[in-house]
Amino acid sequence: MLNIRKAMLLLMACTLCGFSHAEPTEISFYFPIAVGGPVAKSLSALVADFEKENPDIRVTPTYTGTYKDSIVKALTAHRSGTPPDVAVLFAVDMFTLIDAGAIVPFDDLVSNADDVAWMRGFYPALMANSRAAGQTWGIPFQRSTILLYWNKELFRQAGLDPDLPPANWTQMADFAQKLTRRDDAGITTQWGLQIPSSGFPYWLFQGLVTGNGAQLMNEAGTKTWFDRPAVVEALQYWVDLSRTRKVHPPGVIEWGNTPSDFLSGKAAMIWTTSGNLTNLKAKAGFAFGVGPLPGNKHAGSPTGGGNFYVFRKTTPARQKAAFRFVQWMVAPERTARWSIDSGYIGVSPAAWDTHTMKDYLMAYPQAAVARNQLSHAVAELSTHENQRVTRALNAGLVSALTGAKTPQEALKDAQTQAEHILLPYQR
Description:
The chain is α/β, with parallel strands linked by helices. It contains 19 helices and twelve strands. Belongs to the bacterial solute-binding protein 1 family.
């Protein structure tokens, strides 16, 4: 009898031990909400699906506000010793996260040849803001380019072909002239073109710089070239649109107001992220076009958006679970679905080969414009001390757009500040 009781107790102990091992690994996930549309709802659905397919991992998503809010929260949590296990943060925050010792390279997480091949399966243009010093620090997720959107009905009213957007800077300014309307009192009721200059002014400006054949920084993130002649020329063009041609709103234009102004007919053409495509498509009561950015010397756009990062101050088991979560989230079928739901670019060629994406493109071919633009896209402005460097450039842009400084003065001052900030990183 005693032996039977011992056997039962041993069985119960083993059973309890088994239950202990079956407890799921819990990981925390920081995710920013930075554009319109039902992004949070779509993300929550993806997390729920992941947990169903991976019952040994439980994901707790925390919506951390804008990208700017998110990097502050992530670094604060890292310094306090309680970082998220995985986060979507700005791709341009890569150097900042590396310098803080906050993240691990994905090269340390791969375990076989299939994992290595997976890391090489993303569009090269998107990896330009994901790799540094020969290692992969970020995995592209909600990535974008800047697009030109135009109201086809307003094109018709102005005598323009609604299916032919401007192909270069000269045409864009000329089209904007025809699309600008003023009432009898001389008050502008419809702007021909609107490029936002708050929120991410450096990014929109980089669209002009790229189209003028120039670059803002080196690949290592240690030098900037804000005051080069082609960069100054790009800013002069932007300033002239509002101050000389008067076809663009004066002063600082709010990032968040630009899609609304487009939807209400206050702006006939706008520049904004491809991440706004699905939101505009759902809300526009008119036909609109989607095209690549018109360039001066050639076409081009910076990439933008966020990467997945895995944090260092966590356990190996949670890092492993986070890695599985990232791989699942960027699998071709889910990347395709996320691209359709949000307007962000499907980050791998394999995503565009899915039946889901092919069917969507048959019905809505405009969705491929941002992807096609990757062939001549450049890395978004990213340096060490990136927040300070971009703050210097943003201040310079605002001073020029508001008339406080000439474009040359503004960019010379921004370059001087950037050189001072980056001096410790010169080698």
